[in-house]
Amino acid sequence: MRRYARFVIPAVVIIGVLGFLMVNLSSSLVYYNTPEELQAREAGDATLKLAGRVVPGSVVEADATVAFTVEDCDTTVSVVHTGAPPQLFQDGIMVVVEGTWDGSKFESDTLFVKHDEQYRTDAEDYDRTDHSCSES
Question: Is-contact 48 99, C-beta < 8 A?
Fold first, then answer.
């Protein structure tokens, strides 16, 4: 009986701890949506993440906000971000924004940019063909 108890008690404790962690961590995870998935959602106060590419020419900076449009192939979503954007924020860059969806625009309070390790000079223009959704 002692051998059995030496195995069962630690196993029950480990399973209990893992179960507790899974339940608590799953409620704090926020998966990102594409613009198409976001437009299919109902408006609400739930915190969401939106990922896509900033549409070139759509960035409008105001006092404490930045408004821009995020695209994913044929679908676009208007975003209003409160706060200063990161230094790498620019037209055509991939972003992930976190905030709420009111049914017509996404109100963000957190903005992340995705960048690669390749350096490009300011003189290089945004090439739409390199960033299109079409399979060529």
Answer: yes
Asked if the model's pLDDT at residue 116 lies above 80, the reply is no
Question: Which residue type sits at 100?
Answer: T
For residue 108, what are the β-bridge partners?
Answer: 81, 99
Closest CA to 82 of 66, 59, 69, 106: 66
Distance, in Å, from the CA atom of 130 to the CA atom of 105, rounded to the nearest integer, reads: 27
User: Do 21 and 45 belong together in one domain?
Assistant: no
Classify residue 16: in a domain, yes or no: yes
Rounded CA separation 11/13 (Å): 5
Residue 120 counted as domain residue? yes
Q: Do residues 130 and 78 lie in contact, with contact meaning Cβ atoms separated by under 8 Å? A: no
pTM of the model: 0.68
